[in-house]
Amino acid sequence: MVATFAATVLACRAPEVTAQTWRTLTSARQVQGERELAVDVQYAAGIFRLVPAAAGSLYRMELRYDEDKFVPVREYDAQRGTLRLGVRGREGVRVRMSDRRRGEPPPSLDVALSAEVPMALALQLGAAQADVELGGLPLRSITYETGASQTNLRFSSPNPLTCDALELRAGAAEFRVSQLANANCRRVSFEGGVGEVTLDFTGTWRQSMEGDVRVGIGSLTLRLPREVGVQIRLSRFLARFDRAGFTQRGNTYYSSNFESARYRLTLNVDAAIGGVDVNWVAAR
């Protein structure tokens, strides 16, 4: 889906447009008794930031964009409980990410979302430099897709709800997720192509967790809490694996406290070329 989304912006066959008319748009809405919200954010390229909103705010968006190439998206449907934010490419316009003139600030999208309304969140980014703070947001499910990007995704404080699933997908990326336990998700999955990936499972553990991790070419670092029982089922081609702290049975690796730990993390890891490194750390 990331490739499809990026293609709508990058691969149109219309004549190239070089004009630039930069605009800044601000949009916001207050909480008005919403019980649930499905939030969809799409952003092709630029600087992307997401944080929890101030009390009483349903959302706030500030967008810097090239009006000749993009159309802002801010669509709220109270009856359906949906919110769509971001930009879409203008029909018939071919956009190259190198079109920005030298010295121009990059395009950017800043989003703040309510910490008061339970939501299902879907983020779809293209060539973005992303800094995303989801700590404290009441999230029932999370989907995060990105293309060629640099991502720093954090859960700095616990999710007050139980999350069904966290799905992460990345193309050629530097991808770091911090304090995954605070997401409070039953299941976590990551699928990556090329790049450096760090998955940090520290935070406040309130339930056991299962996960699937698939990486292509690059490095994967797993930050694992010593207090949590860990089981890793490993399938690898030319990838090395740091097995320190594990006991091996076939292609499955167990931490010494797997049977006795209050919470358990069970991971299926599929690695092709590169390395899988394990850092044992405190839970918080």
Q: How much strand?
A: over 45%
Taken in chain order, the helices and strands follow as HEEEEEEEEEEEEEEEE
Task: Using the 3D structure, state the CATH architecture.
Answer: 3 Solenoid
Total domain modules = 1
Number of strands: 16
Helix share of residues? under 10%
Count of DSSP-assigned helices? 1
Indicate the mean pLDDT. Answer: 88
Largest sheet: 16 strands, mixed
- CATH topology (fold) name: Pectate Lyase C-like
Q: Which structural class do the helices and strands define?
A: mainly beta
Describe it.
This protein has 284 residues and is mainly beta. It has a single domain, classed as Pectate Lyase C-like, CATH 2.160.20. It has one helix and 16 strands. It has one helix spanning 2-10, and strands at 22-30, 37-52, 57-66, 70-77, 82-89, 108-113, 119-133, 139-146, 149-154, 163-178, 185-200, 209-225, 229-241, 246-249, 252-255, 264-281. The protein has a 16-stranded mixed sheet that branches. The radius of gyration is 20 Å and the shape is globular. The relative contact order is 0.13. Residues 1-17 have low confidence and may be disordered.
